Structure formats: structure tokens, C-alpha cells
Amino acid sequence: QFPFGRRLPCDIYWHGVSFHDNDIFSGQVNKFPGMTEMVRKITLSRAVRTMQDLFPLEYNFYPRSWILPEEFPLFVDEVRMMKDSDPSWKPTFIVKPDGGCQGDGIYLIKDPSDIRLTGSIQSRPAVVQEYICKPLLVDKLKFDIRLYVLLKSLEPLEIYIAKDGLSRFCTEPYQEPTLKNLHQVFMHLTNYSLNIHSGNFIHSDNVNTGSKRTFSSILCRLSSRGADVKKLWSDIISLVIKTIIALTPELKVYYQSDIPAGKPGPTCFQILGFDILLMKNLKPMLLEVNANPSMRIEHEQELSPGVFENVPSPVDEEVKVAVIRDTLRLVDPQKKKR
Fold first, then answer.
1. How many helices and strands, by DSSP H and E, does the chain display?
2. Choosing a second label site near 32 at 20 to 30 A (CA), which of 79, 109, 163, 179?
3. CATH number of this structure's domain 12-38+134-333, picked from the four choices 3.30.470, 1.10.3470, 3.80.10, 3.30.420
4. What is the percentage of the chain residues whose pLDDT exceeds 90?
5. 64-131 maps to which CATH number?
6. What predicted TM-score, i.e. pTM, was given to this entire model?
7. If residue 123 lies in a helix (H) or strand (E), which one and from where to where?
């Protein structure tokens, strides 16, 4: 570890935050310039929407989204039009602050007039999306999937998807949103950092049980129920590839401005965290992409109010150690020499 930076050449620079941590002249860096900006909720929504306009059938894995505050009038108009054409449509929307993470600032609404416009949205832009009301449930609970994707290079575009990921569960049995239960975050939001504070959160030593499990354990259960797991995987792979294709043009602009062609500089790779929700009919929907997915393999346990200790988490360890190990193997600079 070099807390004050290191200017000597080395094979792999592993940065905690972003590409611009300090000057890097050689080797490989585990961050792409511009990636943090590209996967913010607003930028991601814009990039995917551009592709939705061009290829509506190919990009139907991302919920309908509007950018606030600038598209607020559009949001109000479109919802009114859709309600007029189908009076039985009773939508729910989810509002996500652009720079928020770990579930911070997210809330559900039934009507555009419920958006908390009081100053905060003006100073804090957000994305509002149609909420997916019919998620796949396991043990009556809603869950999402965190998959790890290695973007190994932009030119040529080279993408690897880890075979296993995490399934992160809500801690209260799911019910479709109503005005009464809209604020029940433990029922509607799958964020680990929220649910860990629920009294129902289960830390398990088994990858098949508890509030955080392996994705492979969910696939096993689905397969035993007769679900077509092969098709599900191919749908997920397709979602990942198409999402990265949507981000690539702007990523290349960032890349070329920071590492001009022909100049000596590092090459880049990056592990991305894809958050995916399965609908009841097993269609995967993209929730968001994380440029800095947590690689911690322990969790905090509250011993007494406000007193925490770190406890190893077998589920995190099983998935994340493999992700890091295989990433290092794939970008191994020694490989060419052997």
C-alpha cells in the first residue's frame, strides 16, 4: 500500500477510488477514466435511453425513466397521458438521487405530485423510474442480484462476467406497493446497507440461506422448480453486453482524452457491479451499474447499540475472492512473457 502515491513503474495499479488518483505512466490500472461519471444514475439513464430510441426491442430491460428536475413537466404529462389511455393503470414510481448510493435518499411515490420538490430536487438532481411491482420472490421476499463484470478492454471490447454473484434480500415479506406500505423500505428496497439495520436481517454461514446468498443457490432453486435457467443466463449476459455497448462511445472519449493514442500510458480494466432485478416471469431488469462495487469479505455486526465488530462473511468470501483472483489472472502482465 502506498497511501501517498507511488511513481515507480509497476505491473498493476489497484486504486480505491478513481482513475485520477495520481500520475500513472505504465502498467495496468483497475479503473477507466470517466467510468464513475458514466454509471451515475442520470448519465446511465441517458445512455440507455439513446439506445432505447434506436433499438427499442433490444433495450427493453431498463425501466422507463425521467431525469429531474429538467424532465419533471414531461414526466407529469406522460403519466397523465398513460393514465388517460388506460384508467386501470395504477403505477408506482421510485425516485433515486443521482449521486446517491447505498439506498440513500430513495423513496417511492404513487403520483408525480408526490415528488419532494421542496428545494432538494433542484439542488439534488434525481432519476424517477417506473417501479417494478411484480418481482420474482424467494421465500416471499424481494431480492436483487449483484453480478460482477470485468471490462478488460475497450478496444477491442472485451467483457467477462463472473459465474456467481450475490443475491441480496429484503427483510420483510413483499406486498405490492400501496399508499400504506410505500415507506416500508425493508419490503421494497433490496439495498444491503439498509436491510442490515433491520431486526430481521439474517447473517448466515450457509450460502443458501439468510439475507445475503449466492446467486448460484437461487439458480439451483429456480432450476428445481422447472425454470429455464439457461435462458435466464443468456438474457442476463445480453443485458450486460448491451449496457456496456451503450456506455462505450462516451467511455472512449474519456479514454482518448486521458490516454492519447501513441503516447505511453497505462492500459485500463475495471470490475463493475451490475444490480439486476428478476421479474416474476424471470425477465432480468437492470437497476444500476456500480463503478466501485464493495469487495469487503466481512460484515459489520452490532454487538450493542453503536458498537460494531467485523465478522467474516462466507457468502462474500466465496463470490468476491473468485472475482478478484480471476480478474488478476485475466489481466496478468506476465502471461505474454511466458
1. 9, 16
2. 163
3. 3.30.470
4. 63
5. 3.30.1490
6. 0.92
7. helix 120-123
